[in-house]
Amino acid sequence: MDLHKSVFTTFEAASICHANVTSIKNWIDQGKLNAFRTPGGHYRIPRSDLDAFLHAHGMPNPLRDPSRIVVALSLDALAESLIEHLSPRHECIRTTNAVSTLLTLGMELPDAIILSSTVLSPSTLESLLHELDNTPDIPNPHILLLTDTPPRYTYDALTILAPTATAPSIIDALQPVLLVTNAYAP
């Protein structure tokens, strides 16, 4: 199957979602998945809608290859180690300050964010989490936050790691989120 096409049949969408065609049609009827009908009455699902659906529901997403990871760390050695390990299979975007991080998040819609509390102030982080939670058109990325002080705002897709976390422990925390399959090798 061509994963780069712009429109998918319900059968193709079922294969991509690891679901059955009936589930795809139910999701369309329930308004969870956008689709249009052909003159013959068959559903067609635009690629962008299927991509957003998969991402919003935390499902493996073969349409988004590679996964996008924003690495927002002030520690160069740690960021470089993570990017070196992840970049063969994932698109890594490095940021080092609040402005570039927020701009990148808005433009790239990443699957995950590796974020140090030294990059965003606590109030900016709280605002970011609130906006991600309350903006339905934006799929919620998983955030791995390196901090001593967890934010007050609860965000379902947040994993707290110690600020001293190592590249292997960050990779381990990413595995269930992005289906990172290769183990960390220094």
What does this structure look like?
Mean pLDDT is 88; it is low at 180-186. This protein has a 5-stranded parallel beta sheet with strand order 5-4-6-7-8, with helices on both faces. Strands 1-3-2 form a 3-stranded antiparallel beta sheet. With 186 residues, it is an alpha/beta fold. It folds into 2 domains: 7-56, Multidrug-efflux Transporter Regulator, Chain: A, Domain 2; 67-178, Rossmann fold, CATH 3.40.50. The chain has 7 helices and 8 strands, in the order E-H-H-E-E-H-E-H-E-H-E-H-E-E-H. The two termini are 36 Å apart.
| Average pLDDT metric | 88
How many domains in all?
A: 2
Strand order of the largest sheet: 5-4-6-7-8
From the helix content, strand content and strand pairing, which structural class follows?
Answer: alpha/beta
Question: Strand-residue fraction?
Answer: 15-25%
Put simply, the count of helices is 7
Q: What is the CATH first-level class name of the largest domain? A: Alpha Beta
Assign the CATH superfamily of the largest domain. Answer: Response regulator
End-to-end span in angstroms? 36 Å
Keywords summarizing the entry:
single chain; 186 residues; alpha/beta; Multidrug-efflux Transporter Regulator, Chain: A, Domain 2; Rossmann fold; 2 domains; 5-stranded parallel β-sheet; 3-stranded antiparallel β-sheet; 7 helices; 8 strands; 19% strand; disordered C terminus
